[in-house]
Write a structure and sequence with these properties.
The structure holds two protein chains of two kinds. Chain A is of the alpha+beta class. Chain A is built from two helices and ten strands. The model of chain A has no long low-confidence stretch (mean pLDDT 93). In chain B, a hairpin with a 4-residue loop joins β7 and β8. The relative contact order of chain B is 0.26. The chains are: A alpha+beta, B alpha+beta. At the A-B interface, β3 of A face α2, β3, β6 and α5 of B. Chain B: It holds the Pfam family CheC.
Chain lengths: 156, 215
Amino acid sequence: MIHVPIAHMAVARPPAKLRTTGLGSCVGVVLYDPWARIAGMAHIMLPQASHGREGPPAKFADTGIPELVRRIEEAGGVRRRLRAKIAGGANMFPLLSNEFFRIGEKNVRAVRAALQELRIPVEAEDVGGTVGRTIEFDPESGKLTVWTVRGEVAVF
Amino acid sequence: MTTGRYPPLALDALREIFNIGAHHAARALGELLQVTVWISVPTLREVDFAEVEEIVGGEEPRVGAYLRFQGDLEGSFFFLLSPRDARALARRMTALLAGETEAHPPREDGEGVHFTELEWSALAEIGNILAGNFVATLFSFASLEMRMNVPGLAYDYALAILAEGMLAVGESADEILLGDARLSAGEQEIRGELVFLPHPRSVDVLLAALAVDEE
């Protein structure tokens, strides 16, 4: 099991699995090449990197997703075969929802836009709502498992 | 421990503010619940985002009150409890409101994830009082303009809750100051965690208000 911390990314192939925990407004992005069975996961915090600042690329949708593609290619994956599965982007405190607190929705939009730009189809998504998620991806089966704190489990 | 943007003297000064804020918050909780509240000496350290997860746990279930303050000072304040302790605390408060002198011991029933509406309101009020007292301490120190919202309350993974505060500073920082205090209340040993995530801008403002020489 490879753990992906917040604002980080990792690439894996079977039998390793990828896991990231406690996604709230953040979005977990999985890209995988089903033929080569290579997968990458990023725990993205915010939509866009501000200009002139270096930071970990996985922190932002606009820098993290192209970087994740690059690392998968480096590991032997092929860009045109890539598929995406995404989860997260919740609104953790809906009663406080002003502009800032809708960051979850903004994150999901930014992730979708970045994927569209790279022509990577989104095969499955479990986004929005008001609950946090923990996710695990198995590059062998291509299945994404999603847990909530209340013990609910769903497979995508 | 990562970069070390702040000199040790500045960290000591900030820790003292956090210390006093946490003690005010703890005293307010003790008065509200009519119990003795103990508080550990808070720590304040500069960590990167991944370290926050290591410290608080990525998927520990927590009931968390979240207060965001903005203005000359910006940042987030959290009060985190395990579901079991949250319910014990809520029962203590609802028992007091009902005029009972002895709180019922917390009932064990499996996961401990269910809260009645009354218990949830009690927790919101507890979060309100803790957060209000903590932030009021910052106000009085810095004598600056600050707005604070009513705190939000969530039952979720610790990281999913705390990330709300990390996102608020994430655009301009990769490291944050994590203030961390543990308190315990009453004979039932309810343990909670106070977490303070100031915006880097605010750290500079606080240091200026304290007249800490950064040389």
